[in-house]
Amino acid sequence: MVTAKGNGKQNGTIRLERKTIQKAKIIAAQRSTSLSALLRHQIELLVGEEEIYERTKRQALALLVQRQDQNGAVEIWRVESPSAKRTLLHRIALPGVPAISNGFNVTVSHDGKSYAYQYHSINSTKFLVRGLR
User: Fold this and answer.
1) pTM confidence score
2) Domain limits at 20?
3) What are the distances in angstroms from CA 119 to CA 65, 82, 101, 122, 123?
């Protein structure tokens, strides 16, 4: 049975074993609270944990993808599953770094809000030798 109150809260009735209620009353007394407040607190914790779990699950299902474009910039995309909706999170362009560099590594946090990168280039000169036999 559930009854509504004007302040947005509702009363609810649950049925528990007599021994469970007795033990819960002892726990409530040890915590200097009422049985009702103890149950309300535990249910609110459970609901809050479930909300956190669902939000984390949605974030985990979104895959972070990085790719390097033709100008050498690295783009970090969030690709949501199963819709495949793509959202550009970051574009990292380094002036003076050639598009083809030897090692451009990007590490992105799980939520996609932060990133760190490192790169190193190897400069070399190409020679074309003609007429060798």
Assistant:
1) 0.42
2) 2-60
3) 18, 33, 8, 10, 13
